[in-house]
């Protein structure tokens, strides 16, 4: 589990093709502190497992399923990526609950700068809009952000200078692809409502196992 608070911008060092997968090598410093093989690091919001590292460069295997459903398919050596280690129990939850399981790939539509912040509009894939609410949470390239407004198949986020300086959203341009993960709580609520365990407006329905 992650919080969506990016710890550092890493750099793609190399990509090794493995037929139905790739081995991704990344250069970083902060996220390797206290990290060993088998630990999880989110790369642009995708949860990857550390295979090995030498203190400066680490590798992860990326399956075809991940390549098909995330923007990691298009990364190239030299690209900057958002990195975050899995959260520990003693760490502050500065963002929101992030699983590192990408729901879909969105596209940057436009950027509107102002004196102290920047509004970024992102188009999302079909079906994701039902999980978004104004002032709710969304993960974009592994960054925990607050939705400003939703407009059909797009939504906007407001970025402060700190986010612009420390993450990939500082340089994403219109047309660029970004990984999106909806709030997992919204997905659980949707499933419970669909299952019939919870009936809207019926406070007497306590679900199975209650007498």
Search tags:
38% strand, 211 residues, seven-stranded antiparallel β-sheet, single chain, globular, six-stranded antiparallel β-barrel, mainly beta
How would the blueprint of this fold be written?
Layout: E1 8-17, E2 21-27, E3 40-43, E4 46-49, E5 52-53, E6 57-63, H1 64-69, E7 80-85, E8 104-113, E9 118-123, E10 137-140, E11 143-151, E12 154-159, H2 161-166, E13 177-182, H3 184-195
Antiparallel strand pairs: 1-2, 1-7, 2-6, 3-4, 3-7, 5-6, 8-9, 8-13, 9-12, 10-11, 10-13, 11-12
Describe this structure in words.
The protein is 11% helix and 38% strand. It has three helices and 13 strands. The strands form two sheets. It has a seven-stranded antiparallel sheet with strand order 4-3-7-1-2-6-5. The chain has a six-stranded antiparallel β-barrel with strand order 8-9-12-11-10-13. Strand 10 (137-140) and strand 11 form a beta hairpin. The two termini are 35 Å apart.
The total count of helices amounts to 3
Radius of gyration: 18 Å
Oligomer: single chain
Low-pLDDT ranges: none
Helix content: 10-25%
Biggest sheet character: 7 strands, antiparallel
Tell me the strand order in the biggest sheet: 4-3-7-1-2-6-5
Number of strands: 13
What is the arithmetic mean of pLDDT? Answer: 90
Report the portion of residues in β strands: 35-45%
The structural class is mainly beta
Topology order in helix (H) and strand (E) letters:
EEEEEEHEEEEEEHEH
The geometry reads as globular
